[in-house]
Amino acid sequence: MQLPLRIAILETESPSPDFQSKYGSYGDVFIRFLTNAAITLSTNPPFHAEDLQFSKWDVERNPDYYPDIEEVDALLVVGHQDHLGPTAMDSTPWILKLVDFVRKVLMEQDRVRVIGVNYGQLIIGRALGCAIDRMPGWETSSTTINLSEVGKKIFGRDHLNLMHLHRDHVVTLPVNPFPQLPNAILEILGDSDHCAVQGLYTARKVIALQGLPEIESAMMTQLIHERLRQGQMSKDVANDAAARSSLRTDGIHIGATFLRFLLDP
């Protein structure tokens, strides 16, 4: 893929005003995250943070405005949408438009690659025909992911530790996710104690994670407290999540893997 790498971030949610005052939008968080990850890459020829170009698209509040696919190299679908507001399974018009847009990018061309995180994985899963449902409870804070064989190959290790904050999850994969590409396989990257589909992957097309590699400890603590105040999470669940929020995560390693996925010829 030629440089600069043009990444269009599809924001599906606006964080609270307090969160935004400290960290910006979820798109801003991801821009810093991937910029920091780029510094760790060792490639030939060298890849630099300056080789990344970002644009942000608020597809929830401005559903009539999407990037021109000819002018981007990758889509990054981000957001939570698991506490108040619509779920990825809803028929809200902007969600249907987002699912349709992602489906067309995945089905109708082979150049632009797609990354999804948290709500983004659910949207990608829905676009590909995955079954999505609500879990009995929350999966929160620093969590260990047991990687599948393909996940081990992609991430170069047996396990990943990353932040989580979700109640919805991909339940099953479709038999034939890419009807026009019979050799394209949608694979599961790993699982956890609470969630059987922790990631989705198709070579040179899509990579997604249910967790939140871009979220740091202080951010997670704030998000947990917000959900507690909103009545979406019990005190016991919030306390347990807060106690684990300072544990080590593999965020930057995951960010570098995302970039290698985009750079893979």
UniProtKB/TrEMBL annotation:
GO cellular component, one term: nucleus
SUPFAM superfamilies: Class I glutamine amidotransferase-like
Superkingdom, taxonomy of origin: Eukaryota
InterPro entries in the cross-refs: ChyE-like (IPR044992), Class_I_gatase-like (IPR029062)
Signal sequence interval, chain numbering: none
Protein name, UniProt field: Glutamine amidotransferase domain-containing protein
UniProt organism field: Arthrobotrys oligospora (strain ATCC 24927 / CBS 115.81 / DSM 1491) (Nematode-trapping fungus)
